[in-house]
Structure formats: structure tokens, C-alpha cells
Automatic annotation (TrEMBL):
Protein name per UniProt: Uncharacterized protein
SUPFAM superfamilies given in the database record: Acetyl-CoA synthetase-like
Domain of life: Bacteria
Organism: Gordonia prachuapensis
Amino acid sequence: MMNELLDDIRRRAEITPRLAAVRFGDDAVTYAELNDAIAAYGDVMDRHGMSQDAAFHAGLINCMPGLARIESATERNQVMSEVVAWLGRELGGGDSRRLRAVS
């Protein structure tokens, strides 16, 4: 699923770079910004033998610092899961029909 999600983010960054990919609180990130951050962290993760999953999460938190300010690890993990579901809502792999936005 993560490879499909990363490919979708890359594609959307090319087609609609200024479109907001996701919003959380006062933070908003476009597809271009998110793609650029994932790519930058991807280089770092590759050098250290880490996955593109790690690059995605690092890039997302870099672009949306409000996510790092969630104190409860359980709540932070829940919000991150909702963000992944939101971004992958059109990929067909999850049940995101109910999800309208991440709050």
C-alpha cells in the first residue's frame, strides 16, 4: 500500500502541485511540498538502510509540525493512520468511504 501511496503523491504533485494534500489544525501541505519532503527524507533513509515508509512519516511531520505536538502516542498514531487513509482514499485498498477530513 505504501508504494502505491507514494506513487500517487508523486503523480498528484506533478499534476496538481498546489492542491492541498492534507490539513491538520493550522497546518496544510500541498502535494508538491509533501512529495519534495518525502524525496529529501528518502535520500537520507536510503543512506541509513531505512524504508520509504520512514521517509513518508518524516516528510509528513516535517511539513506538518502540529503532528509532532500531539502528546499522546496513541492519539498521534491514530491521526497518522487517518492521514494515510485520507491520502490513500482513492487507491482502493482501505475503507475510507466514511472519512471526510482529518481533524
